[in-house]
Amino acid sequence: MAETMDGVKLVCATCGQANRVPRARLAEGPKCGSCGDPLLDGKVAELDAATHDKVSRGDGLPVLVDYWAPWCGPCRAMAPEFAKAAKMLAPQARLMKLNTEDHPAISQRAGIRGIPALILYRNGRELARLAGARPAAEIAAFVRQSLG
Ligand code: ZN
Hints:
Number of helices: 4
Number of domains: 1
CATH class: Alpha Beta
Strand content: 15-25%
Bound molecules: zinc ion
Largest sheet: 5 strands, mixed
CATH topology: Glutaredoxin
CATH architecture: 3-Layer(aba) Sandwich
Strand order of the largest sheet: 3-5-4-6-7
Number of strands: 7
């Protein structure tokens, strides 16, 4: 991955602020310079329409987005597995989720036909996607294999 003097760009999932974090400090729990929320703490961050677009189109780290909805049983069943995978993959990748019931236009644009659906973004574009509920180990393996 390209590295610059001014660090890795991490978009804050809470406020949308783009932060620059030196690569050597990614594992040290960086926080957003604007709102103070953690940027990379191994937890699943919740996206809205604006932060989804900022993250998927220009984050400096790979981002895996879980497209889910509260009415979807398999989605709810996968949530703790997705949370485990987030811990396994930090600080190489960030895991986030988008509620497709609240943001149907986003999932339509992403071509989501069924949920849960996982899309891995890297360098501002889609790298790979995975459909259906998966255990944590499978989610982590999918991301690692996709990133090479
Ligand atoms: Zn923030």
